[in-house]
Write a structure and sequence with these properties.
Strand content: 35-45%
Shape: elongated
Distance between the termini: 95 Å
Oligomer: single chain
Length: 473
Amino acid sequence: TTTSTTEEVAETTTTTTATTTTTTTATTTTATATATTTTTATTTANNSGLQSNSYGYSMSSTTVSSTANSYNFSYMYNYFGSAVTWYSNYAILEYTGTKISNVIGNSIYFGRMSQYGWKFQQTYGQICVGLYQDNSITASDLNTSIVNNSMVICSDGTYSKISNVIGISIYFGRMSQYGWKFQQTYGQICVGLYQDNSITASDLNTSIVNNSMVICSDGTYYNLGAIGGYEVSTSTKGMSWTMNIDLLSMSFNITNSKGQGYFGFLNDITTTYYVVLFKSAGYIQMTSSMTMLGSSYIKKVMTYFSSDNWPFDWLTVYEDPNLRAVSYTGILQCLDEGYHSTIGKSISNSQIVYYTMTFLQVEEYGCFGLIYSQNPGSISLTSDIRSSSIALCSDNTKWGVKTVTDSTIQVGSSFALYIDYFAGTMNFTETTPGGNGFFTATIPDVSNTYYTSQFNGYGALQLGPTITKVTFG
């Protein structure tokens, strides 16, 4: 008989480094938010013992061998129902009853068994083995079903179901960068973010994956866009994934070491939570480095958000429901695959003659500009309408314009749209640092030409920092 025990040996040194990294400035017409301090917390993991023993403690395992033909059931022998028999000479645990009878052993703290094994040999129904968490074991736990609250695999091919871990909100957690590996899973484990105005007990044992922004160990992902339109596999065991959150653009990326992965968008950091969703038994291993934002920075960002209110009414008279305008950041977000557009007011109605826009992360493309129609309400918001538009797009396509000075348009490119109301002309002037693109077009009719934004797939456009409206009096 071989028994493995694990003892805590010594606490290692945990190193925390506070660094000032970059200064990011988001400028609007009314307020400035500046990121000044980023605190990086690095934990030195000591993996000299078991793989899972790290993050501040060095662990060692001890093996005890015996020639006696007797299995040590001490870790399991604690609470058990009727008709249960222990055969230590054969390492057999047998139940001969006809109803539910549970065996609940010692806690992990007292049992200290970190590795053990078994075989399902003979059963006329269901036998389940694993772990069960309960603050108080009672007699009723021994003869009533606790399988739905346990972490087990069973002889009939079933296994324990959903168990969700919901952390604190981004606002309080302040963790802008952290990583993990999917190590062992018998089904699906998902990691990412979850937005909900109210967390309830039902969120912990029912599936919330369809409403979460996560990547999963079985190769699936939810409510995210693929960076560059390329879907990279998330099912590779042991692959490192890193979450990076950017509050000023209200966006985040989940990427592997090659920079491949997925991106998503935030709406409210006070009600968006860090999550790990278990649909089956398994575990993830966190990487040892993480970045925590300073509390003063979080407060400064929230002050900036509360003081700013970007107008979108001129751009979103007709709006696909999969688009979300975040007024306090000036960002228009697309939250689904496929074509999604907005049609705004006419030039003569809104009298906006100048505005700037930046292409943010996008799955396929994002576009902005103008569109002519005598019946804007009839324009399809879920079709490709670029050919009817005067627009620039992040996939380096230009529609309805004359190229005066060409340039490559991509994620990160910025342009200003100028309208000469009385001449009936317009131009796109590049404002990207180092860029000199310049494109012109004739406006058919200022009364029937409307502002538009268009997407194919997940993506975002950043409005501002300037919008100019003229008043004719």
